[in-house]
Design brief:
One of its GO terms (biological process) is phosphorelay signal transduction system. The protein is α/β, with parallel strands linked by helices and 476 residues long. The chain contains 20 helices and 16 strands. The structure holds adenosine-5'-triphosphate.
């Protein structure tokens, strides 16, 4: 049998439940028969004669499954079921009933019993129901373990970075997580916005609810609308059945609107309404759907600027920006880079079943000076490749992509001097940097700066930049 993915991932941890079954019946012959069936199926069977005994036994042996008659003296099965469930909500209870009391059993199912058997049942039937009850317990246990694993992963302690700028981010996450406030996370691509969003969710009272992500720029407008709000059967050609949207799926959880700046104006209006009223209609539908959803939005665009240019609604912007969190780009937290390098090198080495390679100080320097336009994601990719390609050491020569595009020196603006002098200083640095980037090639440099070659030569002369960047493939 092919095991489900979560089973495979959890491995041995998965079967954490015991194999105890408590059999409760006032008739000795039934107890005997069930005991034999359970024992042969490999379970550890225990016996009780009435509801009262069942409660006492449950406390003592903590069975995973209980199979119990409804009609019994002293305390009947239904009452015992209610009481046991109050203290042990996870135990799977199978109720047994004679023909006349099926209605009661159905009622018990509604209240959470796992299944019922109509007496007399044959041995196979009993065995199958028992098996299913144990399987359900195991699945529940696995889901709980998985949820626990995911929640642990998204704890602040697992986010890399000790820099002051990241401390600010953690503080904001800690403050906003317990609330229902809408959060707007800004930051460059790959800087960790989604990670922060998940961490907020997993530290919020909604942690047991869903975390649903939508990439607002991923689909054309019409499709995006039905993706967000769902559709009714026949809403458009191809809508063969009703489909819930992401807002509905995120009920009692968190909806993460990634790339929110990409939403078209009509969808911005719709989103605004949901934010204000927490209700909407499915595409092609008239029924108003109410949802309890916490919104976290993220963008790598400058939304304020988009508002000024009339590309993003101002009212929506303010609705989203109730609590803004800015995740700084990696180059602004250089002190965290060694931590990231250490973390990723270990992780990828473990994944590839290799020794953890040594990162030379020169390579580390390069990591610190590179400008990381793709941020943490880019650093992770570079390190993954380097770990696979390296033979024990990661040096500058193993990082060809970084060498040629290594960080250009920052432009320093002089603090004193006349405007003319300051501009000259800045211009000199800009030209020196461009020459270096093009390895001294003046045609390319002039093109990049959009000035004539003559003007460039003149400035090189004026600033004494004659040999700037002429060496081949220079890093430093
Ligand atoms: N501080 C961090 N600690 C550990 N891992 C991180 C950190 N920041 C980012 N990462 C990892 O880097 C990758 C990119 O992060 P994430 O997807 O959260 O970025 P993003 O800003 O949402 O990107 P995009 O804007 O492209 O959607 C992920 O694998 C994430 O787990």
């Amino acid at each position: 049998m092919l095991l489900p993915w979560y089973y495979q991932r959890l491995g041995a941890k998965a079967v954490a439940i015991n194999n105890r079954v408590l059999i409760v019946d006032d008739e000795l012959s039934v107890r005997r028969l069930l005991f034999e069936v359970a024992r042969r199926a490999g379970y550890e069977a225990f016996l009780a004669e009435n509801g009262q005994e069942a409660i006492e036994q449950t406390k003592e042996i903590k069975p995973a499954v209980i199979i119990m008659d409804i009609k019994m003296p002293v305390m009947d099965g239904l009452e015992a079921f209610e009481r046991i469930r109050a203290d042990y909500p996870d135990v799977a209870v199978i109720l047994m009933t004679a023909h006349g009391t099926v209605d009661t059993a159905v009622e018990a199912m509604k209240r959470g019993a796992f299944d019922y058997l109509v007496k007399p049942s044959n041995v196979t039937e009993v065995r199958i129901v028992l098996e299913r009850a144990f399987q359900m317990r195991r699945l529940r246990e696995e889901v709980a373990a998985l949820r626990h694993e995911v929640q642990n992963k998204y704890q602040l302690g697992n986010i890399i970075g000790k820099s002051a700028v990241m401390q600010q981010v953690y503080k904001a996450v800690g403050r906003v997580a317990p609330t229902n406030a809408t959060v707007l996370i800004t930051g460059e691509s790959g800087s960790g916005k989604e990670l922060i969003a998940k961490t907020i969710h997993n530290n919020s009272p909604r942690r047991d609810g869903p975390f649903i992500k939508v990439n607002c720029g991923a689909l054309p407008e019409g499709l995006m609308e039905s993706e967000l709000f769902g559709y009714e059967k026949g809403a458009f050609t191809g809508a063969v059945g009703r489909k819930p949207g992401r807002f509905e799926l995120a009920h009692q959880g968190t909806l993460f609107l990634d790339e929110v700046g990409e939403l078209t104006p009509p969808l911005q209006v719709k989103l605004l309404r949901v934010l204000q009223e927490r209700e909407f209609e499915r595409v092609g539908g008239t029924e108003t759907i109410k949802v309890d959803v916490r919104i976290i939005a993220a963008t790598n665009r400058n939304l304020e600027d988009m508002v000024h240019k009339g590309l993003f609604r101002e009212d929506l912007y303010y609705r989203l920006k109730v609590v803004p969190i800015h995740v700084p780009p990696l180059r602004e937290r250089v002190e965290d880079i060694p931590l990231f390098v250490d973390y990723f090198v270990r992780r990828f080495a473990a994944e590839a079943h290799r020794e953890v390679p040594y990162v030379t100080p020169e390579a580390m320097e390069l990591f610190k000076r590179y400008h990381w336009p793709g941020n943490v994601r880019e650093l992770a990719n570079v390190l993954e490749r380097a770990v696979i390609m390296s033979s024990g050491v990661i040096g500058v020569q193993d990082l060809p992509g970084l060498s040629t595009t290594a960080a250009s020196p920052a432009i320093v603006i002089p603090e004193t001097g006349t405007l003319r002098e300051i501009l000259h200083q800045v211009e000199k640095q800009v030209i020196a940097r461009a020459l270096k980037a093009h390895h001294g090639n003046r045609v390319k440099t002039a093109q990049a700066l959009d000035i004539s070659r003559r003007a460039l030569l003149y400035k090189i002369e004026e600033y004494g930049l004659g040999r700037e960047g002429e060496e081949e493939g220079v890093v430093e």
